[in-house]
Specification:
By secondary structure, this protein is α+β, with helices and mostly antiparallel strands. The chain has a single domain, classed as Beta Polymerase, domain 2 (2-Layer Sandwich), CATH 3.30.460.10. The protein is built from four helices and four strands, in the order αββαβααβ. The two termini are about 20 Å apart.
Length: about 100
Amino acid sequence: MNDKKIISRIKEAIKNEDSNAQVILFGSRARNEEKIDSDWDILVLLSKSIVNIQDEQKIRHKLYDIELDTGETLSTFVYSVDDWNTRLSVTPLYDNIKREGIYL
C-alpha cells in the first residue's frame, strides 16, 4: 500500500471517532528522511476538553487495524487540543512537532 493511501486511512479512522480531531504527521516521514522500516509518528488532538484512557484506546484500536493490514508501525500520541496548547506547549515534543509537523 502506498504512503498516500496509508495517510488517507489514518485520517479517516481518526475522523470517524472525532470529526474535529487534528491529525499531524511528524518525525522522519514528515521530514522525508524515512527508511524502509521507519514508523509513522502521529499526533492526534481530540476536540474534547479531557482525553481519558478510553479515548486513547479507541483511537489506537482503529489504527491497530491499519497496522495489521499494512504491516506498518504507527506510533501515536493522543491529547486534547486544550492540553496540547497549554500544559504540553513547554515540552520538546511540542517544539519538534510545531517545527516539522504536517497536518493531514
